Amino acid sequence: MFSEELRTQAAPIMTAIHDHAFVRGIADGYVPREALIFYVEQDFQYLSEFIKIYANAITKLTDRNEMKFFADSIDFILNSEIHPHHVFCEVAGVEYERLQHATPTPKAYLYESHMYRAADTGSLLNILAAFQACPWTYNEIAKKQVREKANTNDNPFKSWIDFYDNADDDSEVSLSDKIFEWIDRLAENATTQQRQQAKQFFLKSCELEWQFWEQAYHQEDWRFKDVLNQANTL
Ligand SMILES: Cc1ncc(CO)c(N)n1
Fold it and tell me: Thiaminase-2/PQQC domain spans which residues (predicted)?
């Protein structure tokens, strides 16, 4: 199965994500305030781009069920995925509304551009492969932390963990499993070269997920951020 190959090859990246200080911090109930704020600022922008890319993907579809999948995903980001952001804001003691105006950092910009590049190929397999790192890695993080019983009542991130553990709780099959099934169906009719290209999109997205935690943890920004900000006000 193609999706099994994807998971196996991404395993070292997934392990590094589980072990990342930010992700461990969620399990342990402590993440530095600056890291939480930086994450929410960047993730807010990232998810807005995601909505646009999903909307764009709909234009490549003819099947109503497939359209519904992307429409539901947009709805999920707009109406549900604000919850985990609120959890981080509450722990950091900042208002969410204050964190919605950031300039995407180099790594976030790279990840967003990578998604657009996948969408530009016009191949649904590439688009799904590039997107899949997003629900897959978060669901894996949450499932592992639930197995480790990290979601205790005294963990301030309990409801973040529970959210991504049950991100799709109206069904037995998780959202990321459904996407892997869809990827497998498309891969059956793809050439070896097309599968390789999709794999590159998936694996790079997995690394970019790791990079996203990393840049937030260390607040890695543009070296000349003041130049960018100044140019905005002129
Ligand atoms: C960067 C990133 N990846 C995945 C998710 C989960 O949807 C998220 N909120 N942000």
Answer: 9-217
